[in-house]
Amino acid sequence: MPDPAVRKPDAEKTRQNILTVARAEFAEHGLSGARVDAIAARISTTKRMIYYYFGSKEGLYLAVLEQVYGGIRRLEQSLDLDRLSPVEALRRMIDFTFDYHEQNPDFVRLVSVENIHHGEHLKRSETLRNLNSTVIDSLRTILARGRAGGVFHSEIDAVDLHMMISAPCYYRVSNRYTFGTLFARDMSAPEVRERHKRMIADAIVGYLQGCATIAV
Amino acid sequence: MPDPAVRKPDAEKTRQNILTVARAEFAEHGLSGARVDAIAARISTTKRMIYYYFGSKEGLYLAVLEQVYGGIRRLEQSLDLDRLSPVEALRRMIDFTFDYHEQNPDFVRLVSVENIHHGEHLKRSETLRNLNSTVIDSLRTILARGRAGGVFHSEIDAVDLHMMISAPCYYRVSNRYTFGTLFARDMSAPEVRERHKRMIADAIVGYLQGCATIAV
Amino acid sequence: MPDPAVRKPDAEKTRQNILTVARAEFAEHGLSGARVDAIAARISTTKRMIYYYFGSKEGLYLAVLEQVYGGIRRLEQSLDLDRLSPVEALRRMIDFTFDYHEQNPDFVRLVSVENIHHGEHLKRSETLRNLNSTVIDSLRTILARGRAGGVFHSEIDAVDLHMMISAPCYYRVSNRYTFGTLFARDMSAPEVRERHKRMIADAIVGYLQGCATIAV
Amino acid sequence: MPDPAVRKPDAEKTRQNILTVARAEFAEHGLSGARVDAIAARISTTKRMIYYYFGSKEGLYLAVLEQVYGGIRRLEQSLDLDRLSPVEALRRMIDFTFDYHEQNPDFVRLVSVENIHHGEHLKRSETLRNLNSTVIDSLRTILARGRAGGVFHSEIDAVDLHMMISAPCYYRVSNRYTFGTLFARDMSAPEVRERHKRMIADAIVGYLQGCATIAV
DNA sequence: AATGAATGAGCTTTCATTCAT
DNA sequence: AATGAATGAAAGCTCATTCAT
Questions:
Q1: SS3 (DSSP) at D81
Q2: Which of A39, A101, B187, D145 lies 20 to 30 angstroms, CA to CA, from A200?
Q3: Is the Cβ pair D160, C115 closer than 8 Å?
Q4: Nearest to B60 by CA among B138, B129, B142, B1
């Protein structure tokens, strides 16, 4: 009978431990900049386990990517937008997107890293391809309801709308260092954050409500 | 290290040659992923010259960053916006920003890379800190003229406006791989590009013209 | 880096193997002149192992220094001088010092090398600082006994005595090349060696016995 | 007519400038550790001049060695010992040797460096081989006069005597770092210096005066 | 399920030196 | 007599990975 007190952590726990440490390392230094040794130094088991569980540095990176994308997808699905009015639902979606980027800079950094690598891991991962996003569906529903109700006049499609929402939310986190330095603005200051949140939502909701631009 | 002021034509040519190749390499693979050997293999001189002119891999990267930021700054200054109406000037600025990002994906990638590195090189470079941007001044002038003429009602400040313009222009290039894959959209297709260009301009101009969002 | 305490026999063997080869290389060429590649070429494992076990060229040099100083200290402690008369004990100490330098030119060369480097490695090594020498204690005991017995009249202190003994023993090995060439003397010829050994002992023992120098 | 104010330093001055800087560099870092670039950085002309005047790093090192050995030889010849009594002459020679080493640590370091390199440069240099030392002759004269006068009883030969004098004078400078650290003694403190000077002279003069060591 | 020891390949960087004028 | 530009060769070191148990 093994003594529970000295029982080793089980496999899944070890795996998660490695994954958590790896996420931080890859987010901090990118794929090329991350060091397997650095990850090894911070996990409770040995470096050999990384290869035991994930096969290679790239395999580990992929697992991190899958975990991280899984995270945002799971949350998006729990927004429960159908009970809100189209405008309310849209605002809620924007706010969620804003907050998620703000609170998960690691996610933002990892997406940047993956784009530097031409998104090739994401493209190759079956898991990630099967993680079919519900965002587009949600936005499509909102758009349809809004147009039916006459509150949205824009002809924007759901994917483009998603881009318009994501872009500023992402940019202010991904580029906070260069933008912040060049224009002397602290992107993470609370008052800046709130102002940005309002501004982004106002601009997009306004745009959808169809205030056509008047004579150029 | 040679004094730039008294450099011979040939030396300057060699330097530029290295710089051009290095820009491509750093944009393609990032700072950690770039290989000094790979850069050397693509220039007519030897790897040794890289260290002769730039001191280190990081020194070369910094030189690339300075060159690339210098490029966009120089163009921004030649837009000649004062002769246009506020709305026209704003549209022109948006179109320029859009086109510049679209046509210079290397610039976008390098900025992403620099942000992965917390903007530390940009922060440390006196050259880059002295490259004082005229964008903000230009936007400030446009805003003032537009408000004076009663066409702009938004209270947005110039830096935030710059962010609102840059974000979507940047995002559709920086994230084209992940976004394109996940939502099955070819971000570089001409019709997509033109639609995005119009959409971004409409949204921002509309927002400034103050179509207040109607009751939520 | 492996924990020395739980190192396997093979690992220890590999370590020792590297150390032995490195000692020869550092003694032969100095710290700057030694080549990591040259050391690697002479061991059965690869160059990589040097960094695996010692971290850096300097780390390896330090390990060599520690080994070499440990060697002489260990021997000094086994001289068993207490059972001899003060004069006999002193002679034995001088003879040991002479023989050790004569038989371990690598030790002499390494100490020269370390002094060229301002003794900075020795200063920084905790191991070396803790290798507290028993020579001084031994000499102090000899001096005390000799004075108590009235055979030593000199007031020299133990450290200075140690210097007076070491200096000629060291010098004839360390400087054998320049001295030998300039004064056409083969410092390693057996008859020279024996003459020097006698001469050094006689001079120092004589000095301690207090033959005061007569009026100058 | 060249303007005297902007006339370049003449060849000999340039040569000396390089030599002075090189001596410091070689003494500080040894032959392998010295950097041609470091020397170049501290001379008033360009690095190319080093090769112009001295052909190679080794050529420069040799020139330094020749200069440095020339220095002590010149001084030794000006001691004017014949007018002193044998004991006085001997003391004067010892004091000179002591002071010279004390005041010229660079000389000591360079000799150490040359010995690390097996004295091969000294051996190969015609200049250095022709720099026939007068020390031995001087000592031989002193010994002869002392024996004739009955004040010296030792049968030591002049070269061995020279070694006995040089060894401690050299050692306390060459090994000041390791010895000083291991035995916690500041070898360059004025009171230590004076005590050593007296001690060395007393021991050697005493030895020559033939205080035979009494029964062991 | 787990691991300590070992490693080949390739990385950035350095160095004394020479070319061309 | 003097020099700025250029360089081949090799140095120290790092990295993801696998062997053997």
A1: coil
A2: B187
A3: no
A4: B1
Domain that includes residue A89, residue range: 64-210
Extract the tokens encoding D85. Answer: 């009594």
Contact check, Cβ <8 Å, A183/B172? no
What's the pTM? 0.87
Scan for tokens 């003229």, then name that residue.
B145
CB C114 within 8 A of CB D177: yes
Asked if residue C17 is part of any domain, the answer here is no
> Which of C161, C160, C139 has the alpha carbon at shortest distance from C82?
C139
Q: Does C142 touch chain D (CB under 8 A)?
A: no
How far is Cα C27 from Cα C14, in angstroms, rounded to an integer?
A: 20
Phi, psi at C118, each rounded to 5°: 60, 20
Name which of A99, A180, A193, A199 is nearest B203 in CA terms.
A199
Q: What is the DSSP letter of B105?
A: H
- Chains in contact with C via at least 3 Cβ–Cβ pairs below 8 Å: D
Nearest residue, CB atoms, B163 vs list A166, A168, A206? A168
In this predicted model, what pLDDT tens digit does every residue of A40-67 receive, in sequence order? 999 988 889 999 999 999 999 999 999 9
Tokens representing A165 are 């929402």
Contact (CB<8Å) B199/A156: yes
Does residue D26 contact residue D64 with C-beta atoms inside 8 Å?
A: yes
The C residues from 59 to 98 touching D (CB cutoff 8 Å) are 87-88, 91
* pLDDT, tens only, C200-211: 999 999 999 975
Q: Is A4 a residue whose pLDDT tops 90?
A: no
Residues of chain C with C-beta less than 8 angstroms from the C-beta of D156: 199
Q: Looking at residue D130, what is its pLDDT? A: 82
pLDDT tier at C45 (50, 70, 90 boundaries)? confident
* C-alpha torsion angle, residues A20, A23, A29, A31 (rounded to 10): 130
The tally of domains found in chain D comes to 1
* Burial call C20-54: b when 16+ CB within 10 Å, e when fewer: ebbbebbbbbbbbbbebebbbeebeeeeebbbbbb
CA distance to partner chain A, nearest, from residue B85 (Å): 9
B178 → closest Cβ in A31, A87, A119 = A119
Q: How far is CA D46 from CA A210, B11, D211, in A?
A: 72, 18, 60
Q: Which helix (H) or strand (E) holds B155?
A: none
A205 Cβ neighbours under 8 A, 6+ residues apart: A87, A90, A91, A94, B213, B216
Which residues 32-61 in chain C show a CB within 8 A of chain D? 32-33
Asked whether residue C26 is assigned to any structural domain, the reply reads: no
B to A contact (≥3 Cβ pairs closer than 8 Å): yes
DSSP B161-172: HHHHHHHHHHHH
Task: Give the integer Cα–Cα distance in Å for B19 and B14.
Answer: 9
Torsion sign, CA atoms B208, B209, B210, B214: negative
Q: Domain with C79 in it: what CATH number?
A: 1.10.357.10
Please, what is the Cα angle at D13 between B8 and D18, to 5 degrees? 65
Over pLDDT 90: what percentage of chain C? 78
- In a domain, residue D161? The reply is yes
Any domain includes A186: yes
CB-closest option in B175, B205, B216 to A213: B205
Cα B197–Cα B201–Cα B206 angle in degrees, nearest 5: 150
- CB of B167 closer than 8 Å to CB of B106: no
Q: Name the residue closest to the C1' of F11 by its CA.
A: C35
DSSP-derived 3-state class of residue A203: helix
Residues found in chain D = 216
Tokens standing for residue B65: 């960053």
Query: Which three-class secondary structure state does DSSP give residue A181?
Result: helix
C153-162 pLDDT, tens digit each = 999 999 999 9
